[in-house]
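REQUEST FORM: STRUCTURE PREDICTION
Request ID: SP-0412
Submitted by: Lab K.M.
Chain count: 1
Length (residues): 402
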Amino acid sequence: MHKNTPASRSRLIPMAPRDAHEPGRSASMLELFFDLVFVVAVSIASVQLHHALTEGHVLDGLLTYALVFFGIWWAWMNFTWFATSFDTDDWLYRVLTIVQMAGVLVFATGIEPAFTDAEYTLPILGYVVMRLAMVAQWLRAARSHASVRRTAQVYAVGIAAVQVLWLLQLMLPEVPGMITLVLLIAVEVAIPVVAQRRGTTPWHPHHITERYGLFTLILLGESLLASSNAIIEAVHDTDALGPLISIAALAFVVTAALWWIYFWPPHHRSITGFGGTLRYGYVHYLVFAAAGALSAGIEVQIDALTGHSELSDLAASFTVTIPIAIFLAGVWWVAIRDHAGPLVNTVVPLAAGLVLCDPLIPGVPVTLTAMILVLVVVILVLHPPASSPSAPLPPRQPRSRG
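STATUS: Completed
RESULT:
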């Protein structure tokens, strides 16, 4: 627990940067509560992607999912990195966090219209609520501590300006509006790069990677739910009993293997510098989105087996294997490759490519993928991560020149 300075009469704690060398730092109860609302948003996005894919609206479904998932991922990630630097856990910090949670629920309410009617009003309004709460947090950090004042001000001004643009975007017609969405996303992801050049905010490697791991567990849990749905479907469809039970078992094996692979490397050693931190944070968009899409793919595969999908059996199988391949490649890129020997660094990316061949092999879908992933896990067990001393933590925040 961080060392609190004396609270003021308003019961607020000065928002000084947290100590990056703080021992025993872990996710707080507020952060775990915060993650719960994202379970709702992720679940709705996965369900709507499933419907879009199984109805044959592949390109529209994937584009909408990519845009919607950006809002989920970016809001979650910005809160997480801010919390690792400035979490005071006083009443104002909690209230602003709860406001962000309310924004997530508004965002989640608008996910279905985004998929069905390309209507982004509610997601954008919910997103703006989340981001304006972050503006308030950054302004408080700027006011509280001189060492991060310039960086915090850039964050606050940049985020606030983009939110105005998000609201103006709602007045644009559909096609230009979609182009503007992509441009505004590019501006959003550029803000931390620009702000951190003014001065790096401290981060706690173990805390950050624990938070990413917890969110990964949420996403993989969606895949376990999809596996359970296969069993439920099997009870009501005796004609597809064998294949559905096989899909459920194989999906469970695949999900367990992905969990094993994700948590094999020492993630905290991957965010010791600014470049590595950006890579770790941004590439996780692909990792998270792929994990969320996997559950949708499993549901699509169930629909194909029971004759309720517009997709061919081949296309339905790819909705499972492509997310798995992206997940493997992303985890390898951000966490495995720097801490593994030549064999592991060959096997993991090769496995990402081989699972794409699964749909081309006759038989029960996902069988080859499950076998490949189990083999990867066996190799990881036999070749643990390269042992090395704990990675150096980020340097302490320099004193302000002002």
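NOTES: The chain has two domains: 29-196, 205-382.
Reviewed by: T.R.
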